[in-house]
Amino acid sequence: MTAIAVLTSGGDAPGMNAAIRAVTKVAASHGVPTWGVEKGYDGLIDGDFRPLIRRNKAGEPAPLREIEAEGGEGGTILGSSRSKRFYDRAARAVAAQQLEDYSITGVIVIGGNGSMAGIHALTEETDVPIVGIPASIDNDIGLTREALGVDSALNTIVEACDNISDTARSHHRAFIVEVMGRQSGYLAMAAAVATAADAVLMPERPHTRDEVIDSVVKCIETSFGAARDKTRVLIIKAEGVPVPTHEIVEEATKRIGLDSSDYDIRGTVLGHVVRGGDASFRDRLLAGRFGRVAVEAVLDGYGDVMTGWNIGVELGRPTTDDWIRLFDIEDVLAETESLLDGTSSVSQDRVARMEAIQGVLAL
Ligand code: F6P
User: Which is the catalytic residue, given 12, 42, 138, 283?
Assistant: First the structure.
């Protein structure tokens, strides 16, 4: 008897529920039942499993009504964790034993780069194929152009920046808006283009504290100056830039000497607001396509791989979906590392693109 287990791990991301829904439905269409594992890798260690299917009137496996109803919602119905225990080999051996006890023949892990590392480690303890589906608003997972949650988070950021811009224009203000992303500036860069921000501060282009403040002061003074005569200044700052937003606001306010000017500066940290909310169309679509490929992979016995939305790359294995390939987790982890240390051509292209349009951003 074949059975699949699915879990969500790491920071939640919109689209995780849509991926759980897709996995459960696609598996059911193959006549395979799915177990949900509660609270990520912690639940795998503790054997915290619950069935995600019911029997329909014809006696065939069908997703629980909850899976259908909540498929578009943010968060994860299975709960998540950043499991510290999973770093321990003995704990992973217990998790492998749970898979055997529940007669699980394939596992699908929906999560970020830490979760992908977890797949690679668990693969050493079990023969059960484990496939990853990338999900993290940070977009810092190698070999997928986009992870689940990124598009929804960007829509939330754009809406927030539009709202803030209304206030900014009405009061002649500069706003520094900080967005999440851990060490990745992707959300900040993409949102800056989409909101026609005046500047972006991102960790991929490291600056000292003084340089950061200097560039903010220069951007605000030029934008509000006679030549540009703007009513709003919007600067998007990535969380990974190691100068706190309030400090930039205070210091820039001091340097500009706002008593003698007719505008002022405010800061807003969007924080976890960006991680919640219903999944966008694109995240739901990606979740459905990743889910299908992941189920087909585990049923074919492929493991230690991640689904990636990518074309034109040499690495990886083609799948039944032209846009989705299966990448060895080892390659995913190596590319993730270079994305974060800036040596990847993907991060270099992103920075080059931002630099190329920097002049336009400021206009
Ligand atoms: O990885 C997603 C993320 O939201 C990051 O952008 C952020 O740095 C981090 O998680 C916050 O983690 P926590 O929710 O544990 O505070």
Answer: 138
